[in-house]
């Protein structure tokens, strides 16, 4: 009865902390995990009695159960409790965004069914809360204000205006192909920043805030000038946070008549900045309002990829095929074993690969696996992170 009650509580909770014992998994635990499967996205697995490093290794094996967060703790010694609190706080933030997204999806479904009447209208009202959040970043004079005005201005036939919002980080909203977007205010759009000696520092700082809020970042680059050092710093932050990133080559109208311009500019960016090889490059002209369809379709595609979750079974079947095609490398004379892979989160897209030995694991092989994931599971346009964890036993749960 106690168990039943706590499960009922779990289903209405925003975040569920499931406490397990690192030294043994009891049948009750398995039953809990099974019953919590429908709400697994809300579960944080606290693996208790992790008093030493050996047990910490064991704790990582709990990732195999498919919960997004596994935190080794020792309740008795208070070990790692602050990390647990941090994960829970982060989850509460994410939970809010996710609920709104689900409401939006439900509303879209209801709309498709048509004639839903009141319920549909209610759901649509909720759906308004979850818009794709887009931040426009870039050096001064790259055309950020011009682009934002063109996208949110009612003079474009391409996009339609949405009613305003109270959040003051939002510069404007619009709708495109039935999807709602919010453009986040970034330095230099709403009010041009004054020139001070620490403009550089200030703008990176502002960028961090916008990146945290955004689903997808449009990094505006003056097509004639190319990427600046500042852009590279900011791009790195975007990749680290696992946000969508589009390199938007603005002022493309000035490039007219230059043959092969897009290839030349793209090649240069790819060469100088390999960590951005996934980032779509989109030429636009903010003044002439060209390239906007491609820009928004690509933004939507990146956003969709960030939401995607691949089932663990499917992933591991693919992993088996990849390792057969290209066997894992030897490290210190021993072939590394790849035990198990699981996607631990979407948005940011993060996988964890359990291996027999992570030290000295070649980056090239890690890159091979990441590329296979991108290609076969359709994460071609967003940052994909894959962490390695050592586990001793074979992985299959
Ligand atoms: P911001 O500082 O990044 O917000 O840049 P602005 O939007 O203020 O634009 C800076 C200058 O570039 C202005 O003179 C714009 O008219 C010009 N500009 C913006 N977009 C384009 C474009 O697509 N083509 C051309 N030729 N000029 C542009």
What does this structure look like?
- Helices cover 42% and strands 20% of the residues.
- It is built from 12 helices and 15 strands.
- Strand 8 (216-222), helix 8 and strand 9 (244-250) form a beta-alpha-beta unit.
- Helix 4 (81-113) packs across helix 5 and helix 7 (199-213) runs parallel beside helix 8 (229-241).
- The longest helix has 33 residues, at 81-113.
- The radius of gyration is 23 Å and the shape is globular.
- Kindly state the mean pLDDT as a whole number? 81
* Strand fraction: 15-25%
How many DSSP H or I helices?
Answer: 12
The shape, in one word, is: globular
Element layout with pairings:
Blueprint: H1 2-12, E1 16-21, H2 27-36, E2 43-48, H3 53-60, E3 69-72, H4 81-113, H5 118-127, E4 132-138, H6 144-152, E5 160-161, E6 170-176, E7 179-184, H7 199-213, E8 216-222, H8 229-241, E9 244-250, H9 261-272, E10 281-283, H10 292-307, H11 312-325, E11 330-331, E12 334-335, E13 338-345, E14 349-355, H12 363-377, E15 384-390
Parallel strand pairs: 1-2, 2-3, 4-7, 4-8, 8-9, 9-10, 14-15
Antiparallel strand pairs: 5-6, 6-7, 11-12, 13-14
Helix pairs in contact: 4-5, 7-8
The structure holds guanosine-5'-diphosphate (GDP).
């Amino acid at each position: 009865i106690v168990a039943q009650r706590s499960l009922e509580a779990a289903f209405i909770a925003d975040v569920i902390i499931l406490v397990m014992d690192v030294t043994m998994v009891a049948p009750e635990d398995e039953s809990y995990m099974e019953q919590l499967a429908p709400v697994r996205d809300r579960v944080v697995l606290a693996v208790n009695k992790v008093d030493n490093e050996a047990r910490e290794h064991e704790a990582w094996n709990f990732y195999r159960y498919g919960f997004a967060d596994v935190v080794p703790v020792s309740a008795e010694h208070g070990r790692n409790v602050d990390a647990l609190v941090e994960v829970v706080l982060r989850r509460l933030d994410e939970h809010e965004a996710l609920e709104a997204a689900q409401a939006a999806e439900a509303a879209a479904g209801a709309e498709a069914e048509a004639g839903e009447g009141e319920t549909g209208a209610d759901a649509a009202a909720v759906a308004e809360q979850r818009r794709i959040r887009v931040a426009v970043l870039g050096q001064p004079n790259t055309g950020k204000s011009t682009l934002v005005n063109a996208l949110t201005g009612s003079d474009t036939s391409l996009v339609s205006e949405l009613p305003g919002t109270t959040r003051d980080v939002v510069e404007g909203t619009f709708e495109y192909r039935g999807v709602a977007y919010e453009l986040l205010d970034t330095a230099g759009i709403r009010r041009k920043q004054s020139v001070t000696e620490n403009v550089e520092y200030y703008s990176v700082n502002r960028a961090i805030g916008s990146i945290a809020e955004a689903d997808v970042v449009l990094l505006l680059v003056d097509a004639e000038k190319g990427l600046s050092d500042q852009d590279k710093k900011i791009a790195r932050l975007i990749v680290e946070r696992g946000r969508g990133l589009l390199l938007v080559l603005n002022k493309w109208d000035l490039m007219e008549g230059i043959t092969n311009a897009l290839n030349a500019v793209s090649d240069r960016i790819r060469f100088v900045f390999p960590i951005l090889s996934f980032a779509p490059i989109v030429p636009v002209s903010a003044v002439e309002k060209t390239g906007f369809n491609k820009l928004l379709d690509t933004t939507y595609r990146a956003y969709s990829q960030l939401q995607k979750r691949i089932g663990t079974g499917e992933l591991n079947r693919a992993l088996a095929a990849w390792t057969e095609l290209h066997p894992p490398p030897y490290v210190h004379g021993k072939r590394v074993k790849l035990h198990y892979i699981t996607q631990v989160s979407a948005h940011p897209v993060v996988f964890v690969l359990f291996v027999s030995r992570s030290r000295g694991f070649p980056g090239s092989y890690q890159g091979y696996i990441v590329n296979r994931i991108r290609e076969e599971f359709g994460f071609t346009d967003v940052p994909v992170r894959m962490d390695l964890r050592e586990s001793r036993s074979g992985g299959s749960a």
